[in-house]
Amino acid sequence: MRVLVVEDERVLADAIATGLRREALAVDVAYDGAGALDRAEVNEYDVIVLDRDLPKVHGDEVCKRLVARRYSARIIMLTAAGELDDKVEGLSIGADDYLAKPFAFAELIARVRALGRRAAAPLPPVLERAGIKLDPARREVERDGRPIDLTRKEFAVLEVLLSADGAVVSSEQLLEKAWDEHIDPFTNVVRVTMMTLRKKLGDPPIIETVPGVGYRL
């Protein structure tokens, strides 16, 4: 899942991004509304965590513009304006969820993951295929009942493959969903991560390489 955090308080924005990355999510950060709109022009996000009181372009205006162009990401407003009227206003302009500051980070994670499931075709809370069971909420993976310890990126790649439900996933799609905008598109990080993931999943191999196309589980 790929997330954009839009927050002008840089310490808070970076802390949220770090926490989300620890949950095996790919995260980009914008510190103002204009930067958020610029990133949304070039990247496809599943969820946008959006502060309302932003410089350059107000968060409400960012939300309105994204909704007007039918941008596919789900939007959760994260703001100090937590009164009922504020929540009603935020939801009325197109936000999908609203979380007031201060907040419990565990609740933010749960809401982001719930919105991420709604951003695309509905997915079960636990993904299963070919003897693999992946629980995103608990960050747990099993193969035929055997626990498997994965790095955050290995976990993210496996989650993308399982979510594809047997369809081929290209390297470009994996970079889009499992890494952030700072990754070099010409890097071999996908191939290296796939090698370590296959090794940890064990035999018989279940991740197929489709030459010139991508990978399939």
From TrEMBL:
All residue ranges annotated as the Response regulatory domain in the record: 2-116
Taxonomic superkingdom: Bacteria
Keyword Metal-binding: no
DNA-binding region extent: 124-217
InterPro entries: CheY-like_superfamily, OmpR/PhoB-type_DNA-bd, Sig_transdc_resp-reg_receiver, WalR-like, WH-like_DNA-bd_sf
Entry keyword set: DNA-binding, Phosphoprotein
Domain OmpR/PhoB-type positions: 124-217
Name this protein carries in UniProt: Response regulator transcription factor
